[in-house]
Protein 1
Amino acid sequence: MSKIDNFEDLFCHELSDLMNAETQLTKALKDMAAAASDPTLKKGFETHLKETEDQIEKIKKAFASVEMEPEKVTCEAMKGLIKEGKEAIDEFEEGPLRDCALIIAAQKVEHYEIAGYGSVCALAEKLGFDEAKEILGSILDQEKATDEKLTEAAMNINEDAASFAEAAE
Ligand code: FE
Ligand code: FE
Ligand code: FE
């Protein structure tokens, strides 16, 4: 098999991987929302599910803007990260503990996405794909904001768990 020898194809490959990752995530986020107890966290997963569906449309626009078609690839990393999220649901007792495990799994997902979108933005910049860079930059901002919201949710849940433990003493 001949090797990829140009940056256009690298961009196409990386963006196709992200598109597959987002597609896998639409199913996973539904399960995570259903498994979360804290109403703010549940709502957060539901909001990010809508954003994720929108991100798939944005990726299609980015491909169209450079007249490329996505490749059929499986993001193996996202497959693994989602598997870890499922373990959080299966292995931890419902409530603050499982919510924390879900947040940890979700933040690993967001960090993978942040790395991925940061990279395709840099490639788009290098290739002069201005429109694609703008579209993908807006997804990058959503992933960063989601990561921050998850950090806040973790602090609130930990506080709730701590005050619950104190009350139980
Ligand atoms: Fe995403
Ligand atoms: Fe991947
Ligand atoms: Fe995300």
Protein 2
Amino acid sequence: MNSRGRLFIMSGPAGTGKGTLRKILFEEIPDFVYSISCTTRKIRPDETEGVDYHFVSKDEFGRMVAEDEFLEWAEVHGSYYGTRRRDVEAFLDEGKDVLLEIDVQGALQVKSREPDVVTIFISPPSLDELENRLEDRGTESPEQLAVRLRNAVMEMRHAREYDYIVVNDKIGRAADELSGIIEKYRSRRKAAGVGSGRGNE
Ligand code: 5GP
């Protein structure tokens, strides 16, 4: 019997490189799973249904909220996003560690209910640098860019409520720091004896 997995949450403003960091993490850490969120946002040309998100209608999202299917959900940049409880619980029950990449509102909701969750905030080196990166990325209209920058200021105010802050100054260095944090918890669990039948840590 496996011990239960641990939940890790990564947040940070749009354009901080969370997506790239996530890819590196999943190449480096075996048996780590990513929980695919549901969103009402429109699919982007480079995205795949069921890989990047489960893209759902507002009606469907509303039904899921009403039926309490979400571990957490929030409105971000004018669309709704949520983490399906049953997906996360199934992975944790299998003994797998799970990563959520969700916004500050969702992360703090989960942390307040489940203190064992490890929360990590990915910060840009500065707001100027973030603005440059978002402009270079070119995926947002000027209006969307303004919304994301306003949200970035709000999100950075909450950075200190996270267990860890990783500054993404250089992607390789930030990825090493991030995987170091995650591995620290995983090796503690191994040392405590996975397979011993212990319940939650
Ligand atoms: P994007 O639309 O650029 O993929 O994501 C926008 C924001 O929504 C990001 O900050 C991302 O972390 C957040 N997000 C993605 N999935 C979820 C979720 O399930 N719950 C919450 N609360 N935020 C999410």
